[in-house]
Amino acid sequence: MPYTTEEGGRLNNFANEPKMYEAEPPTANQKRNYIILGGLAAALVVGLFVVAISVS
After folding, report:
1. Which of 14, 24, 35, 39 suits 49 as a labelling partner, its CA being 20 to 30 A distant?
2. 1 near 15, Cβ under 8 Å?
3. 3-class secondary structure for 1-56?
4. CA–CA distance, 41 with 5 (Å, rounded to integer)
C-alpha cells in the first residue's frame, strides 16, 4: 500500500486519488449499436410477457 510522507516525517496511509479524465462522447456507430441493443432488449421483454400471458 503506498504511503505519503507529511512535513514532519510522519507516514500517512490515506488512499491516493486516481487521476481524473473526461469521458469521450459516443460515436455515431456506438449510438446506433445502443439503439439496436435497446430494441432487441425491448423485444425480448415483450416476448416474455406474451409467452407468460399465453401460458397462463
Report:
1. 35
2. no
3. CCCEECCCCCEECCCCCCCCCCCCCCCHHHHHHHHHHHHHHHHHHHHHHHHHHHHC
4. 52
Please tell me the predicted confidence (pLDDT) of residue 1. 60
Per the listing, cell 487521476 goes with: 19
CB 4 within 8 A of CB 14: yes
Amino acid identity of 16? N
Q: How far apart are CA 39 and CA 2, in angstroms?
A: 46
Do 12 and 4 meet the contact criterion of CB atoms below 8 Å apart? yes
User: Which is higher by pLDDT, 24 or 4?
Assistant: 24
